Amino acid sequence: MTAGLELEDWVERQCRRSAGFMAKSVSAVGLRKERPGLGQVVVPARGSVLASPVPAAWDPEPDYFFHWLRDSALVMDAASELIRGSSDDGERRAWQERWRDFVGFSLRLDRLSGRRLVAGVNLERRVRSAMRPHFRGTAELASIEGDRLRGEVRFNPDGTLDLLRWTRPQHDGPALRALALLRHLPLCAGETERDALAGLLRADLAHVVRHAGECCAGPWEEEAGRHYYTEVVEAGALLAGAAWAEAAGEAALAGACRGTGLRLEAGLEDFVRGDMLAARAGEGPDGALDSSVILGVLHAGRRDSRHGVADPRLLATLDRLGEHFAAAYPLNRAHPEEAPALGRYPGDAYFGGGPWFVTTLAAAELHYRRASLAGADGAADLARGDAFMATVRRLVPEDGSLSEQADAETGAPVSARHLAWSYAAFITAAAARRLAVRAQATK
């Protein structure tokens, strides 16, 4: 818990702290991670983004020393917010350099080959017996080529393939990266930088077109199916990508993106359950109540009245989540007058299933985004967003560090420490708050 500052001042201070902590996950070339069970020593390359820079080994903290496509896209999208919002030339240049390195690293991942990795090398001999149940096997690794790379979910931050079993495929990563690239494009400093970014963007959009709406694992990496989160970010990426491709004179890509994006957008109605939105197609409202619905709309950047921040069904979904977690978590029951800290979904058991910073910050950001809309009841939404932000403040340690979760009873940090996504979520929520405050000042 931090005290002594007005909320607005605290938000700005925590935003600066979050930026500093988040930077330690990007191009962390001075770190080293040993995985003796795989015979690996991993040193991050420039442009890689660690989900967490803590070299844990499920002891008990999870090993997040990987470059996830999803997490890295969200982190670099937050970096663009820092570039837009900073008055410090040095800070802007540093984040621009990280962005250039990120694009270069991402393009190098496209050149990986599972066949080359296993050719003439007996990888299994390096794997200790305790790790063999978790090793993917040479046959699976050999199949990872070309288009399959974008369904890989995560890579070692040294730019090599992940040797461990994980929930695959997942298709939200390329869509999220495409959205981050599109939003960063106006900030590119030169033609060389723009050309590299555009090459990566074309490949990401083409992948999303090919795999849009396919059954895959969702953002929590647990169940395969049709996930609202994945399909709303795919739709957002393709429709925004169509406008970019059309302006660039790439008619074929624009047409493919628009046609597929509109089909996905229409398919989002499959997730409607009465007055709310379900996380998975084919499930009732009780079985599919999930904070990923809120995250998906925010990450897609949708402002529409249907499947956007102005959609009353999205707000109804958030209200249902709030009601559930207000009753489920002891730390919320101890503060019934405050906005509840939110978890992922009812029944979550991962590391105790406590509140996540990214989900509680998403509630704040949703209200801030709504407060910026013309004709909205901005003052009420700004106040509600601040209520969720005040709850986040209560859970943040004095040093400003953000974990993945907070303990459901004590509020103490739980699961991965220094989660880069948590810092990114704070930065984007703070940026949304600034826009909301400015919008209210002009009314």
Q: Any idea what the radius of gyration is? A: 21 Å
Shape: globular
**What is the topology, as strand order, of the major beta sheet?**
1-2
Determine the N-to-C terminus distance.
34 Å
The largest pleated sheet is described as: 2 strands, antiparallel
Please mark out the parts with pLDDT under 50 across 5 or more consecutive residues, or reply none: none
Helical content class: 40-55%
Tally of helical runs:
15
The percentage of residues in β strands lies in under 5%
Summed over residues and divided by their number, the pLDDT gives a mean of: 96
Structural class: mainly alpha
Order of H and E elements: HEEEHHHHEHHEEHHEEHHHHHEEH
Short synopsis of the structure:
This protein is mainly alpha-helical.
Can you walk through the features of this model?
- The chain is mostly helical.
- The chain is 50% helix and 5% strand.
- The chain has 15 helices and ten strands.
- The chain has helices at residues 7-23, 69-85, 89-109, 114-118, 138-142, 172-184, 191-211, 228-247, 251-267, 292-300, 312-328, 330-333, 357-371, 378-395, 420-441, and strands spanning 33-35, 40-42, 67-68, 154-155, 216-217, 224-225, 272-273, 276-277, 405-406, 413-414.
- Strands 1-2 form a two-stranded antiparallel sheet.
- A hairpin with a 6-residue loop joins strand 5 (216-217) and strand 6 (224-225).
- Helix 14 (378-395) runs antiparallel to helix 15.
- The protein is globular and about 65 Å long.
- The two termini are 34 Å apart.
